[in-house]
Design a protein that fits this description.
The protein has 269 residues and is α+β, with helices and mostly antiparallel strands. The chain is built from five helices and ten strands. Strands 3, 5, 6, 7, 8, 9 and 10 form a seven-stranded mixed β-sheet that branches. Strands 1-2-4 form a three-stranded antiparallel β-sheet. The two termini are 17 Å apart. Bound molecules: zinc ion.
Length: 269
């Protein structure tokens, strides 16, 4: 078993205090296939050149961590040197935040860099402006594009407000040695979305039975949003009601160094 698989298995086995049996297989790893070494050009007389070692995929700090080699690194995410430039380019209105780094009995909490995400490129409002790492803020900016596209497709409206349930919380994952990404402000829980026609779409009320197919436009909207957020590398980790009963009423999104996507029935993972 690879280190990645081992970590994923550990995450699955303990998770956020799961209450259901762990899936038999680790979750899908999207966009993680190793870069293929280019085939050497045919040479008539010389033996084939040795293919160069596969390079890790480039790391974009504003998206899911695609580097499999740091999956087991535990600690706050590193600061992003050009954070403000990136956020401004992404259309984010923000203020400097603070999540002081501190050592606790359970590990380190806080992050060397934090921002208060006031509004993103499509102007979605929040019940409370989230205080997050720069990487998560950049992910939220991209996530707005996914939200708006899926809301218009399935519901004929736009998202105007998000009800979030928290970002920073200095704690470990329940029954697990790893720190939760909430310990670093590198995770956010989303509960509901208000549309431009004043409807509220909540994970709790509209996701539908995760063991069944989506039966309403609202359910299709929520499931499509989650699926794209993971498949398009917007976030490293996307947990939904597909994960366990503790996530029956919200989406957990984070920018961990490892990847876990619970965006479909366990049988498809
Ligand atoms: Zn969470």
């Amino acid at each position: 078993m690879s280190a990645r698989s081992a970590l994923a298995a550990l995450f699955v086995s303990a998770g956020c205090a799961p209450t259901e049996a762990a899936p038999a297989k680790p979750p899908p790893i999207a966009a993680r296939s190793p870069v293929e070494a280019p085939a050497p050009a045919p040479v008539a007389t010389a033996p084939p050149a040795e293919a160069p070692a596969a390079a890790p995929p480039p790391r974009d700090p504003g998206q899911a961590n695609l580097d499999p080699d740091d999956d087991q690194v535990v600690g706050p995410p590193e600061a992003i040197a050009d954070c403000e430039v990136r956020l401004t380019a992404a259309g984010v209105r923000f203020r400097a935040g603070a999540l002081p780094v501190k050592a606790t009995a359970g590990g380190t909490c806080g992050a060397p860099q934090a921002v208060i995400y006031e509004a993103g490129p499509s102007g979605i409002a929040w019940n409370a402006a989230p205080v997050v790492t720069c990487s998560l803020a950049l992910g939220l900016a991209r996530f707005e594009g996914v939200l708006q596209a899926e809301a218009e497709k399935h519901l004929g409206a736009r998202v105007v407000r998000i009800r979030q349930g928290g970002t920073y919380s200095c704690r470990r994952m329940a029954r697990f040695r790893l720190a939760s990404e909430h310990s670093y402000g590198n995770a956010i829980d989303l509960h509901a979305f208000e549309l431009s026609d004043h409807r509220w779409i909540s994970v709790k009320s509209h996701f539908g039975d995760p063991s069944g197919e989506p039966e309403t436009p609202e359910s299709r909207f929520l499931r499509s949003v989650a699926r794209r957020a993971f498949a398009e590398d917007v976030f490293s980790v996307v947990l939904t009601p597909f994960w366990d009963k503790l996530h029956a009423d919200h989406f957990h999104l984070d920018q961990a160094r490892y990847r876990v996507g619970a965006v479909g029935p366990a049988s498809s993972r």
